[in-house]
């Protein structure tokens, strides 16, 4: 019991009362976490926060468990559908609205895979039509629109949409955009370089209202009390918007980020570290959270608001998952395609939560259910699960690695719960189905992910990370051949990770693949790093291999826009235990509180037990106070820029552009030099498709020029927001020359911060090499205008003699003026494409963006659907006949090579290329109020002459 008085850990099982509506499982439909009165303070059995009592599971012969869905294939989650991506990615698959009629909700229960709301979900009861006068992109009868689209029939898995709306452990009750409150009395805001305010502020001017709390009132009360006990920050938000962004409250601590004293009374680790890989910490637990950290956890929870609400969420999940049936051996696309990766992740998510719950309560129901899950996935029951020693599918070793980590969590954290026979079983399963399989692949050379040419990405980090994690879990408890295997794995996998996984982060912090694969790769790395430190006393030289690794925290923050990630390349919705909570560990180890402060208020922070040990409770303040608005990530392999008007006003403007070499990204990139996104007024107007169907023929075979990958609509240049010349793809191997300038504004502690009228940033790229043209022939620039209220996009293209097409992909409904020089883009609803069945639709007050051609005089817009519903294929601008013949799926049917998205429009400008071209498009968010400067046509200044003061 902490000094705070009230214990926040469940004190044992509660008798089941069949008359208690809080204990009638699913009687009247599922209750979302945070909305359920299961933990209502009026309940006399629960004076403290914790898990509900008795639950039962009845084996009905191994019926399918829930929806695994969203398996993006070879490495991540094989999805064959997604829309223009505009949302925060996280492991959840739904969000909840309470007290706000702008959200359409239904009553479908989905989400046994859901990290935060395992028992409940909501779907769209229909899709509202956008009744504005539009030419394209009116809502159809299909589920989708705005950021979602119709779902093609899938073979076995429900294909999940990308795009973006992910919420973990939060209830949303606000329309997109805005922040609450004004500057707090304790702000430290002396770091704004442009103090003169523009004539009108950036953003919609419509703060969010009618916000419901993300947690029940008694949980919020306990969080407030914990913050008071520990003299630490209270929760800075009450919920998140549909993109996972926190809706900050005026009481939030907006001081500059700093680190003080940790809460609780953990003291020093009693073990004197040996720093010896083969002679580490004795006993258990030894992975991530040794016993002394568990001993002080209740005290920490009682003195920290964030730990309080996270603990609540973890227990909700752990208890709900007791009702779910064990996983089934469901193979997606083939054992060497997507395999059983989702199955492995479900097992890991469950075992980790149950191990956490057992460790704090010693309630045997968690232990019993965990062993049942492990027995099934080890083929030790009558329920079939794979074959022999390869039942964890080493041919797709991600599956095996994630399963190893799952069993390692259960073995180590629940060690005291197992009897000797159970321990023997678990160790044997880890060695036989996991470690030995990895050693075999290293010995016979089939571990392709360990090779230098293919090792700098998520595969290497996850595969080696799982092997090291499992070996560390059991190394003190094995002898003979098993001991030899464990020791060999530790040496081999760790050394290989040092040389390969550690190359996954470039010198500037950019992840080598894509923003979404950052989650999977850095998550696997973080588990390995943390386990090495607690089990052996050091990282064994891992971090010394890349001194810039922790900069990847900056990458994640800046690639996160107001309406989700800048989703270049292959991207899909996260799920299960894939979160950004490794930022907590990176903050802890680097001493930079900004990473922790950024992540703690995000939608995906709450449901992961690792957050309870990685989060540095000494972190305080607002991550944004003093944080520059712009950043150029200038590594040549992944050159890109991020520019915004505010870190806290999500109705403000965000633009990002990428222009770099398009090879060396583990075959996850696009032909996308000059590609960009624009967020404004609380949503995304220019967006990204993300992945195509991972099962498409030769999708990952090569990234060389002419490769089949580039023939697919979403991967070639025609599927990007850039220039197409001569109806041809860009060159994959090219090196654009880029220039970046910024007024170097950093946000103050004002939640309503708006940059000064002189504030701006610009990015210019010479893409000539990507089109086989002489230097200076094809250039593109993007910049803010009028105090970051508007955006200017300009292209300068020398005479080519070939047709030039300027292309933009948008989810907005689009209408054109009579002269076709102004396009009006309108959005009044967004969808949750991460919902595991039907999209959940969120209405928003209609917002409008104008795109106006100011040069050349004879240029006009055209607009058309990106996909042809009648033909069930994209409207190819070129190359429609080049798609290779497809393989067949498990049912003998040809694989649909293209993800179909009937709600996306392509806005284009076409020129004949017979003269030099200067294309200038002026992007104007339509704010509630406008200023004279908003009406002023921007100057036409040559890109070489662009400067901070040129406009």
From TrEMBL:
GO molecular function: lyase activity
Keyword Membrane: yes
InterPro entries, sorted: Chondroitin_lyas (IPR008929), Hepar_II_III_C (IPR012480)
Primary location recorded for the protein, binned into one broad class: other
Compartment list: Cell envelope
Superkingdom, natural source: Eukaryota
Ranges of residues in domain Heparinase II/III-like C-terminal: 653-829
Transmembrane segments: 157-180
Assigned keywords, A-Z: Membrane, Transmembrane, Transmembrane helix
Biased amino acid composition, Polar residues: 25-39, 928-938
Disordered: annotated segments: 1-58, 183-208, 873-895, 928-951
Protein name per the record: Heparinase II/III-like C-terminal domain-containing protein
């Amino acid at each position: 019991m902490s000094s705070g008085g009230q214990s926040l850990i469940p004190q044992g099982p509660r008798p089941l009362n069949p008359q208690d509506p809080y204990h009638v499982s699913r009687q009247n439909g599922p209750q979302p976490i945070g909305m359920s009165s299961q933990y209502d303070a009026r309940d006399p059995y629960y004076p403290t926060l914790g898990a509900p009592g008795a639950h039962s599971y009845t084996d009905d012969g191994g019926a399918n468990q829930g929806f695994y869905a969203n398996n993006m294939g070879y490495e991540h989650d094989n999805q064959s559908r997604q829309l223009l991506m505009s949302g925060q990615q996280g492991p959840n698959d739904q969000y909840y609205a309470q007290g706000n009629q702008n959200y359409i909700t239904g009553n479908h229960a989905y989400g046994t895979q859901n990290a935060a709301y395992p028992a409940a979900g909501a779907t769209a009861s229909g899709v509202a039509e956008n009744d504005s006068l539009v030419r394209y992109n009116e809502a159809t009868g299909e589920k989708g629109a705005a950021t979602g689209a119709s779902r093609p029939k899938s073979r076995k898995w429900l294909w999940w949409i990308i795009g973006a709306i992910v919420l973990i452990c939060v209830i949303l009750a606000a329309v997109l955009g805005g922040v609450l409150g004004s500057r707090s009395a304790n702000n430290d805001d002396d770091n704004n370089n442009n103090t003169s305010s523009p004539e009108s502020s950036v953003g919609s001017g419509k703060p969010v209202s009618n916000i419901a709390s993300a947690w029940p009132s008694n949980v919020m009360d306990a969080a407030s009390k914990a913050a008071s006990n520990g003299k630490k920050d209270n929760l800075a938000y009450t919920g998140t918007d549909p993109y996972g962004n926190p809706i900050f409250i005026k009481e939030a601590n907006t001081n500059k980020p700093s680190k003080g004293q940790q809460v609780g009374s953990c003291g020093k680790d009693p073990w004197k570290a040996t720093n010896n890989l083969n002679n580490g910490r004795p006993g258990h637990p030894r992975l991530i959270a040794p016993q002394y950290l568990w001993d002080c956890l209740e005290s920490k929870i009682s003195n920290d608001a964030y730990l309080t609400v996270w603990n609540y969420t973890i227990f909700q999940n752990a208890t709900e998952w007791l009702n779910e049936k064990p996983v089934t051996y469901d193979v997606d696309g083939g054992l060497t395609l997507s395999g059983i990766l989702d199955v492995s992740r479900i097992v890991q998510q469950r075992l980790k939560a149950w191990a956490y719950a057992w460790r704090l309560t010693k309630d045997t129901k968690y232990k019993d259910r965990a062993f049942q899950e492990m027995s099934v996935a080890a083929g030790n029951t009558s329920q079939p699960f794979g074959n022999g020693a390869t039942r964890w599918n080493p041919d797709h070793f991600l599956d095996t690695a994630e399963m190893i980590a799952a069993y390692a969590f259960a073995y180590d954290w629940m060690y005291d719960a197992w009897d000797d026979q159970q321990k023997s079983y678990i160790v044997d399963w880890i060695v036989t189905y996991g470690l030995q399989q990895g050693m075999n692949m290293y010995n016979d050379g089939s571990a392709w992910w360990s090779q230098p040419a293919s090792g700098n990405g998520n595969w290497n980090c996850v595969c080696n990370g799982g092997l090291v994690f499992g070996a560390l879990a059991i190394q003190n408890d094995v002898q003979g051949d098993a001991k030899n295997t464990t020791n060999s794995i530790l040496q081999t996998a760790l050394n290989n990770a040092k040389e390969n996984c550690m190359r996954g982060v470039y010198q500037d912090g950019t992840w080598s693949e894509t923003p979404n694969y950052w989650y999977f790769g850095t998550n696997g790395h973080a588990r390995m790093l943390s386990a090495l430190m607690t089990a052996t006393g050091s990282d064994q030289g891992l971090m010394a291999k890349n001194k810039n690794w922790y900069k990847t925290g900056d990458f994640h923050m800046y690639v996160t826009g107001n309406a989700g990630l800048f989703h270049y390349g292959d991207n899909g919705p996260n799920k299960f235990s894939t979160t950004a909570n490794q930022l907590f560990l990176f903050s802890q180890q680097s001493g930079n509180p900004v990473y922790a402060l950024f992540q703690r208020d995000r939608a995906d922070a709450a449901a992961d037990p690792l957050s309870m040990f990685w989060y540095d409770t000494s972190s305080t303040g607002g991550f944004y106070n003093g944080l520059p608005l712009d950043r150029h990530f200038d590594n040549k392999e992944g050159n890109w820029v991020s520019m915004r008007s505010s870190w806290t006003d999500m109705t403000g403007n965000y633009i990002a552009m990428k222009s770099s070499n398009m090879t060396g990204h583990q075959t996850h990139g696009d032909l996308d030099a000059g590609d960009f996104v624009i967020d404004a007024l609380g949503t995304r107007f220019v967006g990204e498709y993300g992945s195509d169907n991972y099962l498409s023929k030769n999708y990952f075979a090569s990234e060389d020029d002419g490769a089949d990958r580039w023939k697919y609509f979403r991967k070639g240049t025609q599927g990007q927001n850039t220039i197409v010349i001569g109806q041809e793809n860009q060159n994959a191997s090219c090196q654009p020359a880029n220039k970046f300038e910024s007024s170097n504004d950093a946000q103050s502690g004002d939640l309503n911060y708006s940059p000064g009228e002189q504030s701006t940033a610009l990015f210019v790229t010479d893409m000539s090499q990507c089109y086989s043209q002489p230097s200076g022939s094809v250039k593109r620039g993007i910049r803010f205008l009028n105090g970051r209220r508007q955006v200017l996009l300009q292209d300068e293209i020398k005479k080519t003699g070939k047709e030039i097409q300027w292309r933009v992909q948008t989810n907005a409904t689009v209408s054109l003026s009579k002269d076709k020089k102004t396009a009006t883009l309108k959005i009044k609803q967004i969808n949750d494409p991460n919902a595991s069945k039907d999209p959940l639709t969120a209405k928003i007050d209609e917002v409008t963006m104008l795109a106006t051609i100011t040069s050349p005089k004879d240029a006009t817009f055209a607009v058309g659907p990106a996909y042809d519903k009648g033909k069930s294929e994209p409207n190819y601008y070129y190359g429609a006949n080049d798609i290779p013949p497809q393989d067949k799926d498990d049912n003998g049917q040809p694989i649909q090579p293209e993800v179909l998205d009937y709600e996306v429009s392509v806005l284009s400008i076409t020129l004949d290329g017979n003269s030099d071209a200067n294309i200038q498009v002026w992007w104007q968010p339509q704010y509630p109020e406008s200023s004279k400067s908003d009406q002023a046509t921007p100057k036409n200044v040559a890109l070489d002459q662009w400067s901070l003061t040129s406009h």
